[in-house]
Write a structure and sequence with these properties.
With 304 residues, this protein is α/β, with parallel strands linked by helices. The protein folds into two domains: 120 residues, ATPase, nucleotide binding domain (Nucleotidyltransferase, domain 5, 2-Layer Sandwich), CATH 3.30.420; 164 residues, ATPase, nucleotide binding domain (Nucleotidyltransferase, domain 5). It has a six-stranded mixed beta sheet, with helices on both faces. A hairpin with a 5-residue loop joins strand 7 and strand 8. The radius of gyration is 20 Å and the shape is globular.
């Protein structure tokens, strides 16, 4: 049986899915570490083992959609070779997670997909194959409106309230304010992003400070989508799909986001994503790259 492997990896974790039997496994995330290539290969190995391996069967193609690592002329061949050895793959396709998110969410290939989890990246794909990326610059310099940004804003608000520099907020009691633990944590980005659901919970409970943080995040995401939509020629409507763990908040985030888009980006038309980034990686592993060909690097290896 011919197999394919799809991988979705980033700051909070990595997932693999074998096709056609759809077995899945997970591995650890990686956050701009010194040996990013080695970290990804090891995470793929652990995820593949958790998924039961490939039982020695032929793996025709593995497609990896990744964030948190630079994919350039130096790193991509090394990463592809390492993944090929781990998975026994004849071909490895590498791209940013913005590509797999888009391929999963908008199967028609046209429009804008915003992927928001720990970080944020947005991809606009035009009818002629043109593309434009917005954000995805990492937790220090970008990722506006993502889970890390929301968690960090919640922590900052709680500390301001405790100091007397800001208004009282339920966030003070809801968040872990052990900053020494956070500053020394090897998973700082994931830890801070993990506070976002508590910020949303406080906002849902009526806390004004938390609600303002959620509203600000919605505004940042709308701005990102607006820049992506503006990059597409024409005046017609543009399908926009939002995907990623941040949208587990549902209408609490989608509601204010929809309102801001209606006011600022009238061409945008929100629609539910057809699938996830892992679904997109599966699609790009199993078939032709189509409009994504210019966004994916392909590496082929001889069978042992």
């Amino acid at each position: 049986m011919t197999r394919w492997a799809a991988v979705d990896g980033g700051q909070s974790g990595l997932r693999i899915r074998w096709a056609p039997d759809a077995r899945t496994g997970t591995g650890p995330g990686y956050v701009h570490v010194a040996d990013g290539v080695g970290a990804v290969i090891e995470s793929v190995r652990l995820a593949a083992r958790a998924a039961g391996g490939n039982a020695g069967e032929r793996v025709a193609v593995a497609c990896l959609g990744l964030s948190g690592i630079v994919l350039d002329e130096q790193s991509s061949p090394v990463l592809a070779e390492g993944v090929a050895k781990v998975l026994g793959a004849e071909e490895v396709r590498l791209c940013g997670d913005m590509v797999t998110s888009h391929a999963g969410a908008l199967p028609d290939g046209y429009g804008v997909v915003l992927a928001a989890g720990t970080g944020v990246v947005c991809l606009a794909l035009g009818a002629g194959g043109s593309w434009h990326r917005v954000d995805g610059w990492g937790y220090l310099f970008g990722d506006a409106g993502g889970a890390f940004a929301v968690g960090r804003a919640g922590l900052a608000a709680a500390l301001r309230a405790r100091d007397g520099r800001g208004p009282a907020t339920a966030l003070t009691g809801a968040l872990d304010l052990d900053l020494i633990r956070l500053y020394t944590s090897p998973t700082l980005t994931r830890d801070v992003a993990g506070l976002a659901p508590r910020v949303f919970a406080c906002a849902a409970g009526g806390d004004g400070v938390a609600r303002a943080i959620v509203e600000s995040a919605a505004g940042d995401l709308a701005e990102t989508i607006g820049a992506a939509v503006a990059s597409l020629r024409g005046k017609g409507e543009v399908p926009v799909a939002c995907t990623g763990g941040l949208f587990a908040a549902g209408e609490q985030l989608l509601g204010p986001l929809r309102a801001r888009l209606a006011a600022r980006v009238p061409r945008a038309r929100l629609r539910p994503p057809a699938g996830s980034a892992l679904d997109g990686a599966s699609r790009l592993a199993a078939g032709l790259l189509g409009p994504y060909a210019g966004l994916v690097s392909v590496h082929r290896f001889a069978r042992p």
